[in-house]
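Issue: ligand-bound run for magnesium ion - logging full I/O for the record.

Environment: standard queue, default settings, no custom constraints.

Inputs:
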Amino acid sequence: MKIIMLGAPGAGKGTQADMIAKKYNVPHISTGDIFRANIKNGTELGRKAKDYMDKGLLVPDSLVVDLVIDRIHEDDAKDGYVLDGFPRTIPQAEALDKALTEAGESIDYAINVDVPDENIVRRMSGRRACLKCGATYHIVYNAPKTEGVCDSCGSELVQREDDKPETVLNRLSVYHKETQPLIDYYTEKGNIKDVDGTKDLNDVFADIVAILG
Ligand code: AP5
Ligand code: MG
Ligand code: ZN
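Outputs:
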């Protein structure tokens, strides 16, 4: 099963992608998580990505595309994957399509998690992230068992650098300009499914499972 998660920053792509990955036993591939891990480990890629991310801007396509194409061809992705945060621009979507077509493959579903901008800023301020394993929490809506500690791997939880309200507003405007056009792109391909991301996260997941089967 090959799935793409679409949706605004904070719509719940990562939260749902994680649940999909566990249920369907496919890897959760989040470009944001990959960049954050690289920043944490002080790599060259992390150094290049950090300035863009801190400002709420997209990292250039040239730093993203090959990374993802290589990742989806790794062994653990043979039976599928859930892509979270990629593609995010039309050129990224076209590059992905080209790579898939060359391999005789295609995406099964693009799931669009729909949440209005008004809800987003409130959600972001309560988000906590694990930079080690990528797990995501919310201090009210999805609290970890122990405050500040990741349930999955025991690492310390942090507030993301780009979750400051003014940066969130930037990310939303970049989303509307660069990423929202992908909704039309996948609508034309006929494999997009909308889910209402304002529901409780377990209800959102139930709606997704009803689509995926
Ligand atoms: P990325 O990490 O992908 O950030 P994003 O797209 O802005 O999305 P978020 O991770 O902020 O939100 P989410 O939809 O995953 O929501 P979450 O599940 O956490 O990218 C970060 C940056 O990296 C980009 O700005 C860019 O610079 C760069 N980048 C990454 N990919 C790139 C690419 N392909 N090209 C170029 N640049 C790229 O949920 C949010 C909060 O809400 C959490 O606290 C969660 O617990 C809570 N929540 C979730 N669901 C619900 C619910 N139903 N009800 C209540 N609360 C909920
Ligand atoms: Mg995310
Ligand atoms: Zn963790």
